[in-house]
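Hey, can you fold this?
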Amino acid sequence: MSSASDYVYGELRRRLMAGSFLPGEPLREEHIATQLSVSRTPVRNAIERLIADGLVTREGRRGAVVLGWQDRDIDEAFELRMLLEPYSAKAAAERATPEQIDELDRINQCMLDAVNSGAPDHVAQVQHYNNLFHHALLNAAQSARVRSLVENLLDMPIIIGSFYFYGRDDMLRSVEHHRQIIAAIRARDPECAEIAVRFHLATTHLLFRSHRKDKKTLEHE
């Protein structure tokens, strides 16, 4: 994937997640290409990736249009996660095998390496490893019931791209939160693990809401 396509994809993803486009609004390749000072080819490639992500769809002659994600949808997803994921961390502290704890450590190190890599697609890599971490945490809880309830929330298209809002310090803070979660699980401290995950998710939700609010304010000034 070219750097131009990565740039356009990242910028459009940030705008979509920030609510800068209305639900049902068409994405005009020529207009976006002019706005971002690129040719239409990377715009076309970026839109195809956004369709694969579930943030955009195609509607006949209208072409690519934005799928609707309201603030209420996002708040509900985070609130449900804050109810269920702390429980999974508590369960992981009680049930996780040493191998599962080591896997959490390995994934978090990969996430840190991605943050520090400076690669053009490092944000996508960070997001990938973050998602893997939270799925691994569910696996470590060893509860099929909890996993079935939470997995769809982790993989919501509007949630899975949250790192497109993050700066480097935000990413490093997330890695550190993961370290604290792992430490609590390794220490077999269910209460500490539960609190660490709840704090991590509350911080993530606050950052997400702040960026959406700031972006909307700028768009309407």
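Oh, and this one too while you're at it.
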Amino acid sequence: MSTTSRKKRSPLRRPDAVIAAARQAKRRRLTSILSWVAVVVAVVVLYAVFPTSPARNTSSSGTSYAVGSPGIGQAAPAFKLAASTGEQVSLSGYRGENVLLYFQHGLSCQPCWDQLTDLEKSSAKVKAAGIDQIVSITTDPADLITRKTKDMGLSTPVLSDPGLKVSQQYEADQYGTMGTSRDGHSFLLVGPDGTIRWRADYGGAPNYTMYVAVDKLLADLKAGAKS
């Protein structure tokens, strides 16, 4: 019987070309992932540098504020709300006058009420700045607002907007510390013809300002108001 020599079988090995191709494919996947990460990071950076929200202004007084929408030159949205005076107050009732709308955080923000107190104490300066009437708007119930104004001895009408309908029309709910559930600290000067002549939203990021000294406020108005 003849014998046939048998070759020893070596363990299975992947050819070098296959290994190289696998490594290359892995590198391509990693490069693709890193590319997507770079795109996401770039978008975040661009959003931070060029946000979609209104740009902030810094006045000569050093006070920083945003200018939301509707802004200068636009018609002020009409409204009619229950007031601390026990009446229904409408914007149209001030036609022919310069009225300063003051959207504020409400009962939980004592600095906001101090703002109103100081504006009343500075009524002569306010009048000299061309403001005929101040009207404040917050989201708290009318009965609680009425009690608060009486306790503080305030005569300025404070309007109740619990459903945020008016606040949202003015986008005043975009500049507070409580998300969009309350107003921030926004001022709009509405001219005799119902057109917005000046706007300053102080309550937004990064400072969330809830009080502005009257002199600074009036200086900002003087510098930014459109006649």
